[in-house]
Amino acid sequence: MRFIDPHIHMSARTTDDYERMAAAGIVALIEPAFWLGQPRTQVGSYIDYLSSLVGWERFRAAQFGIHHYCTIGLNSKEANNEALAEQVLEVLPRYLVKEGVVAVGEIGYDDQTPVEDKYYRAQLALAKEFDMLVQVHTPHRDKKSGTIRSMEVAVEMGVKPEHVVIDHNNEETVKDVLDRGFWAAFTIYPNTKMGNERMVEVARKYGSNRIFIDSSADWGVSDPLAVPKTARLMLDRGIAAKDVEAICYGNALKAFGQSGQMREEHWLNPAPIDQRMLFEGNSVLRGQTPRVGEPAIVERTDSVVFK
Amino acid sequence: MTPELLLKQWLESRLPADAQTWLADAAAKLRNGSDTELYRSISLVTRKIGKADLAPTTAELKQAGVAREGWNPSDWSLDQAARIYLLLMSGTDGATFLRRLDQLCNTADVGELVAFYRGLPLYPDQSRYVLRAAEGIRTNMKAVFEAVAHRNPYPAEQLSEPAWNQMVLKTLFIGSTLHPIVDLDRRANPVLARMLCDYAHERWAAGRPISPELWRCVGPHATGDMLRDLGRVLEKGTAPERNAAALALASSPDPAATGLLWAYPELSIAVSENKVSWQTLAGSA
């Protein structure tokens, strides 16, 4: 089985994670622009971060045979620093239409302050202007009303529900999200948000239409294998394989594939070795063992969830 | 014909109508246009133009060499051609061009970086981009490094000897190949030869293989200890390495090199009859 992790912060992870993810069958991931665990104080550090999402991190992922896409935005926490937020808003358009940027994200509410609301709306307007999808981070606190508010504001700003992924759902929010025609993503965290046992029950209850899961793994306690591990558990608990496939792969692709920037052929029929683009294409010239086109996926029996 | 006109022609003959219209509009807006306009158009290129190969014909490659000596777009793609075309069409003085190029590189994705570095030989006021080229050589991304180092006349024309030597050494160090470096032989120098031999010793000590191409820049300056190194390769090397050592010895002005080579008549003959060359070695190593 193939997997997509449509929300994971690889900049905070190690090559060991990349190896384990590839060995477990993850073929593609989306890295949303987020904060760094502490607030940035300068627009310069934002610029370097966003550049690393479209540059170095994509290159690094590809070395492990994983296709890296990203979303670009000003996160809700840092939106509260208004002076910084203004400057970040100015540089965002320089990144939004870069190759492999699948949405504006992750944006939305944290404390649901007026400033957060201002920049959430400003970025929804950018999404409209650039004809882009939106990936919404829903707040940890006062979640249900924050989630509903995120959707109402998106609609008010003229963004279509089918162009918006509402992330970090739980049992309390999923019905509203689906009823309103948005995509519902669930973050599987080891201890908080959705545990994978709970996710099995959600799948049983709501089926596999417009629902998908992600790990949101970052610099905190989190699991970059959350998607394949949850898939394993779903299958073991009797969820039909086609539903598991939709929740752990197909739906994320359908949702973010609307951007035109993420296509199954990228990993099913990878372009021939292209020296102009990413990495180790030296075999053409020197007859060395080619590591690209077919990147060596390291055997990791300690973490292989699916053979 | 100027490079920007050539790029325009090549793109027009390959792009579908809607992409042509977009490119023409974007280019028209750039004359005296804002920075923002330029940055947005350049990033939009892959979405509007795609990434197919440019695949220039022999005649087009010839035109390129006439428009700008040493310009070799043989392995460019359409997006790269379009990005550099737009940059050139923004038509500003060298100082503004450099400022914009630096800004573009600071927020570039991998594909954009490769395009911007490939464009180096076409930018106005050539000596301004030495630091930019050095930054490209400093990268950890091989494709970006090769955009500067390979099929690009800029380094040989503009880099100082220390910077040039670092570039050549790094090419081997990252497992890339030397033969696409423009003017590799012309810029060979004794310091580089010494650096390469030191590197070979490091690799031998670590029990690691050495690219036979390494000896290409050693040969013309090989004397004394360097000849001993080449003798060691003749004696113990793999077949491609021995061919490389023979080629290197043949390019050395030191009479001792000739003597050393004659001790291996079959290699000596292969070299004198042009049965081995750096080109074929680069392919077979």
Key structural traits:
heterodimer; A: 307 residues; alpha/beta; 8-stranded parallel sheet; 13 helices; 43% helix; B: 285 residues; mainly alpha; 64% helix
Helical content of chain B, roughly? 55-70%
Number of strands of chain B: 0
Question: Which whole number gives the mean pLDDT of chain A?
Answer: 89
Largest interface: A-B, 30 and 36 residues
Strand order across the largest sheet of chain A:
1-2-3-4-5-6-7-8
Low-confidence stretches of chain A: 279-293
Number of helices of chain A: 13
- Secondary-structure element series of chain B: HHHHHHHHHHHHHHHHH
Order of helices and strands of chain A: EHEHHEHHEHEHEHEHEHHHH
Distance between the termini of chain B: 40 Å
Class inferred from helices and paired strands of chain A: alpha/beta
The proportion of strand residues of chain A reads 5-15%
Q: Could you describe the largest sheet of chain B, including whether it forms a barrel?
A: none
Fraction in beta strands of chain B: under 5%
How would you summarize what this structure contains?
The complex is a heterodimer of chains A (307) and B (285). Chain A has 307 residues and is of the alpha/beta class.
Written overview of the protein:
Chain A has 307 residues and is of the alpha/beta class. Chain A has helices at 15-23, 43-54, 56-63, 76-79, 82-96, 114-130, 143-156, 174-179, 196-206, 226-236, 241-257, 265-268, 283-286; strands at residues 3-5, 26-32, 67-72, 101-108, 133-137, 164-167, 183-187, 211-214. In chain A, helix 9 (196-206) packs across helix 10 (226-236). The longest helix of chain A has 17 residues, at 114-130. With 285 residues, chain B is mostly helical. The two termini of chain B are 40 Å apart. The longest helix of chain B is centred in the C-terminal third of the chain and has 16 residues, at 190-205. The model of chain B has no long low-confidence stretch (mean pLDDT 94). Chain A binds chain B through residues 47, 50-51, 54-56, 58-59, 91, 93-95, 97-100, 260-261, 275-282, 285-288, and chain B through 36, 39-40, 43-44, 46-47, 75-77, 80, 106-114, 140-143, 146-147, 175-177, 179-180, 211, 282-285.
